[in-house]
Specification:
With about 230 residues, the protein is mainly beta. The chain contains two helices and 14 strands, in the order E-E-E-E-E-H-H-E-E-E-E-E-E-E-E-E. The longest helix is centred in the first third of the chain and has 10 residues, at about 70-80.
Length: about 230
């Protein structure tokens, strides 16, 4: 296991991936449910009645770059004041999402070949939770999930530096297609962007990781810090 310093903290990359049908799966793979409408058993001692949701997003979703709005996505990343290397990863090297949905929560993991960019967000329905900031700066972000008329809405906020947040809607306009509409608001600026994903049996990386992607021969200590 190899370690890097990210924002002053030691982070270790996983040694390998699971393989399924020639594709890569995560170290702890999330179960893929092939059906579009699936019902999952509620956990014992359920804290509240789960909302009614029209679809189950559990599974692997590969980004459809051609159908996604790259220009507005770039503007949204600029509003977040991401560092150069973070922006390269977010704009070019996040290839998809792996999602696990239950009646009480939604867990979203970003799929990328970059071993030291591992972001997983877990949202609870109608309950606030905290997690690592999406921009990987120090501190936490607060988040809450609720059912929306056409899908799911995740509300995310964080404090200084660069206090702001994201309103993110997950919808399925048709079977096997996921739309993620994100409105990023930071410092009085706001940008809305649409990213499109398609359901897949497994994630097959399009890229092979090298530090040359970033014009580097070794990772600097502050490579993931913002400006």
């Amino acid at each position: 296991m190899q370690g890097w310093q990210i924002a002053g903290k030691e982070v270790h990359a996983p040694l390998g991936n699971h393989h399924t049908s020639g594709g890569h799966r995560l170290q702890a793979p999330l179960t893929t449910l092939r059906g579009f409408d699936c019902s999952l058993a509620a956990p014992q001692s359920a804290p509240h009645k789960p909302p009614t949701v029209k679809f189950d997003l559990t599974g692997v979703w590969v980004k459809d770059t051609d159908a996604s709005d790259a220009e507005s996505y770039d503007r949204a990343l600029d509003i977040m004041k991401l560092g150069r290397l973070q922006k390269i990863t977010a704009a070019r090297l996040i290839e998809g999402l792996e999602i696990r949905q239950s009646p009480y929560s939604l867990t979203v993991q970003f799929l990328t070949v970059v071993p030291f960019f591992k972001v997983t967000e877990r949202f609870l329905f109608s309950r606030e939770t905290t997690m690592q900031r999406r921009d990987l700066r120090g501190g936490e972000q607060r988040a809450q999930l609720r059912a929306a008329p056409d899908g799911l809405l995740a509300s995310i906020s964080w404090g200084e530096p660069y206090a702001g947040g994201v309103e993110e809607t997950f919808t399925c306009p048709e079977a096997g297609v996921l739309h993620v509409t994100s409105t990023v608001s930071v410092g009085g600026q706001s940008e809305t962007t649409l990213q499109v994903y398609r359901r897949s049996e497994a994630w097959k990386p399009k890229n092979k990781f090298t530090l040359g992607m970033f014009g580097l021969s070794a990772p600097p200590r502050d490579m993931w810090e913002g400006h």
